[in-house]
Design brief:
Layout (H helix, E strand, L loop, with lengths): L2 H7 L3 H5 L23 H26 L3 E4 L5 H11 L12 E6 L2 H13 L3 E8 L8 H4 L5 E7 L5 E8 H9 L7 H7 L5 H4 L5 H22 L4 H16 L3 H14 L8 H13 L5 H18 L9 H20 L3 H16 L7 H16 L3 H14 L3 H17 L3 H19 L4 H16 L3 H21 L6 H23 L1
Parallel strand pairs: 2-5
Antiparallel strand pairs: 1-2, 3-4, 4-5
Helix pairs in contact: 1-7, 10-11, 11-12, 11-13, 12-13, 13-14, 14-15, 15-16, 16-17, 17-18, 17-19, 18-19, 19-20, 20-21, 21-22, 21-23, 22-23
Length: 514
C-alpha cells in the first residue's frame, strides 16, 4: 500500500466522522456570461481580478479562524494553462473553467475542513456550489489505490457571480505529497512557499530518518539527471538546487558546500535558466556560509536586484510567492547586517519579514518564532534589554518547536550573560547545550558553540575547573572542524576559527587563574 493509502487508514475515528461529503449538482456549474455572451480568457480574468481582493480577504479570515497550517492565494490562472485545460477537458467551453481565481488552505484535521465548509456556508457574500471530496465514503476505493486526496470547493462570489476554487488539503497528505510523491524535485520549493525557509524550521517537525531518506533520494535523482542530461543541464541544475536545500536541512555541510559551489559555477553556463532558479542559486550561495562574508552579501544583493527587476512596481500586484521571496531575501540581508554590526538595519529587515509572515502563518509557526527571536536579539543589542528579553521569554515559554525553543534559550543565556547574571545565563545555555547534544551529538559544532558559552559562565561564576573542561572540549570540537576544512575560505570556517580562538583564550585565562 502506498503512503497515501496508509495515510487514509491512519485517520483517527473522530476524523472519519468529519469527512466532508461530495456534492455534485446534476447541472454543470458555469461562470457568468459577459454582456450576454460566453466569456473568453480575458473575460474570466477580468472577473477574477475584480474579486481577487475579496477572495484574498476571505482566505485570511479562514486561515485565522481555522488556525490553518498554511494559506496561499494563487495568482490568476495563466492563459496558456487555461487554454489547454478548456480545450482538452471542456470542449472549448470557457464557462466551465472554475479555478481562474483560487486559494489553498492546509489544515491538520478533517474537523477543520468541515469547519471551513460551515464558515463559507454561513457567509452572506458567497455560495458554495460544489464540493469535490476525495475523502467521502463514495471514494473509499481510493484507500486501496493509494490516490492523493483533498477537498475542492467551487464557490460563487455574489459580487459578480464569478466562481472561484478553494482547495483544502489535510496536513498529513500535504506532507506526503511534498516529501514522498512524484514532486520530490519541487519539495524544497514547497518548503519556501510554506515559509519553512531555513533548516531549523523543519527539524523538530520532521524525523531525522525522514530527512535522511529525502537526502538519499535527492542524491539519486541528482545522479540520474546528470547521466540523462549532462552535469550542466537545466535538469541537473534543478536537482542540485533541491539536493543542496535538503542537505542543508540534514546538516550535511560537505554536500551543501560541494553542491552550492557547483551551482554557482553553473551560472556562467546555463543561459536558459529561469530567473527564479537563478535567484534560488544566489540565495543558497548567500545563506549557506560557503563563501566569505563579502561574497555572500554580494550574492544576496544580486538576488534582490534580479527579484526587483522581475516584479511589478506596485507591491499590491505581487503574488504571495513574490512577497515570500522578498521576505527571504530581507532575512538574509538582516543576517549580514548583524554581522556588520548594523543592528538597526537588521532590525528593520526582521520587522518587515515578521509582518509578511504574520499575514500568512499562525503566530506560533516556527518561522514566526524564529523571526521573533531575532527581533528580540536586535532589541537587546540596541540597548533595549528588558524589551528584548521579554520577546525571548515569550518565545521560550510558548514555542513547541524544539529547535526554535533552543535558539531562544541560547539568546536568553546571552542576554543574562551581558548582565553578569551567571546563574540565569548558565541555566539557559545549559538547556541549549543539552538539546543540541541530544539532537546533533556532543561533537557537533552547534554543541561546541553552546559549550563555549557554558564555559564563559562557569568562569564568570568563579568555577575555573569546570570552565577549563568546557573550553578544552569546545577547542577539540572546533579544531576538528578546522582540520577537516583546512583549505577552505568561508564564513562558516571563519566563524569556527573565531570560536576556536575564543575557547583557547578562555582556557588560557583558566590556567592563569588556577
Amino acid at each position: 500500500m502506498s503512503a497515501y493509502g496508509r495515510g487514509f487508514q491512519d485517520l483517527c475515528p473522530a476524523d472519519r466522522y468529519c469527512v466532508p461529503s461530495a456534492n455534485f449538482p446534476e447541472q454543470s456549474q458555469l461562470q457568468p456570461l459577459v454582456d450576454g455572451e460566453c466569456p473568453d480568457y480575458a473575460g474570466l480574468k477580468e472577473q477574477g481580478r475584480d474579486i481577487l481582493p475579496k477572495v484574498s480577504e476571505l482566505a485570511e479570515v479562514m486561515g485565522h479562524a481555522l488556525r490553518a497550517n498554511f494559506v496561499s492565494v494563487g495568482p490568476l490562472k495563466a492563459e496558456a494553462r487555461s487554454t489547454e485545460k478548456v480545450s482538452k477537458d471542456y470542449g472549448g467551453d470557457w464557462r466551465r473553467l472554475l479555478d481562474v481565481c483560487r486559494f489553498t488552505v492546509v489544515v491538520d484535521s478533517m474537523r477543520k475542513m468541515q469547519d471551513a465548509l460551515a464558515l463559507l456556508k454561513d457567509r452572506d457574500d458567497v455560495d458554495v456550489v460544489r464540493v469535490k471530496s476525495g475523502f467521502c465514503v463514495e471514494c473509499k476505493h481510493m484507500a486501496t489505490t493509494g490516490g492523493y486526496r483533498d477537498v475542492k470547493l467551487n464557490v460563487r462570489h455574489k459580487f459578480n457571480g464569478h466562481i472561484f476554487e478553494v482547495q483544502m488539503q489535510l496536513l498529513s497528505f500535504y506532507l506526503i505529497k511534498r516529501e514522498l510523491g512524484h514532486a520530490l524535485y519541487t519539495w524544497s520549493r514547497t518548503l519556501d512557499l510554506s515559509c519553512i525557509v531555513v533548516p531549523s524550521d523543519i527539524m523538530g517537525t520532521t524525523s531525522k530518518e525522514r530527512v535522511q531518506d529525502m537526502l538519499r533520494i535527492a542524491w539519486r535523482r541528482c545522479e540520474e539527471a546528470r547521466r540523462e542530461s549532462g552535469d550542466r543541464s537545466l535538469k541537473a541544475m534543478t536537482s542540485k538546487i533541491h539536493l543542496a536545500k535538503i542537505a542543508n536541512i540534514a546538516s550535511d555541510r560537505q554536500t551543501v558546500k560541494q553542491t552550492t559551489l557547483s551551482l554557482v559555477e553553473d551560472l556562467n553556463f546555463l543561459k536558459s535558466a529561469s530567473n527564479s532558479d537563478i535567484i534560488e542559486i544566489l540565495l543558497l550561495a548567500a545563506s549557506t556560509q560557503c563563501f566569505d562574508s563579502a561574497m555572500s552579501l554580494n550574492f544576496c544583493e544580486q538576488a534582490m536586484e534580479k527579484m526587483k527587476a522581475s516584479l511589478p512596481e506596485a507591491e499590491e500586484e505581487w503574488d504571495t510567492t513574490d512577497v515570500i521571496m522578498m521576505a527571504r531575501i530581507r532575512e538574509i540581508l538582516a543576517f549580514h547586517a548583524k554581522l556588520s554590526a548594523k543592528t538597526s538595519d537588521a532590525l528593520d529587515h526582521y520587522l518587515v519579514v515578521y509582518d509578511v509572515f504574520q499575514g500568512l502563518l499562525s503566530i506560533d509557526h516556527p518561522k514566526m518564532m524564529g523571526v521573533k527571536t531575532e527581533i528580540g536579539v536586535c532589541r537587546i543589542d540596541l540597548g533595549h534589554r528588558e524589551e528584548g528579553k521579554q520577546l525571548l521569554h515569550e518565545v521560550f515559554d510558548t514555542c513547541s518547536h524544539k529547535v526554535k525553543k533552543s535558539k531562544a534559550s541560547f539568546e536568553l543565556g546571552r542576554a543574562y550573560e551581558l548582565e553578569n547574571n551567571w546563574v540565569q545565563a548558565l541555566k539557559f545555555y545549559t538547556l541549549t547545550f543539552d538539546n543540541r547534544v541530544q539532537d546533533l551529538g556532543k561533537t557537533h559544532p552547534a554543541a561546541g558553540t553552546a559549550l563555549l558559552a557554558v564555559g564563559r559562565c562557569h568562569l564568570g561564576a568563579g568555577d575555573v575547573e569546570k570552565a577549563r573542561d568546557d573550553f578544552q572540549q569546545a577547542m577539540d570540537i572546533f579544531g576538528q572542524v578546522l582540520q577537516a576544512n583546512s583549505n577552505s575560505v568561508s564564513m562558516y570556517n571563519d566563524n569556527k576559527r573565531n570560536q576556536f580562538e575564543a575557547a583557547e583564550l578562555g582556557l588560557q585565562q583558566c590556567l592563569s587563574d588556577a
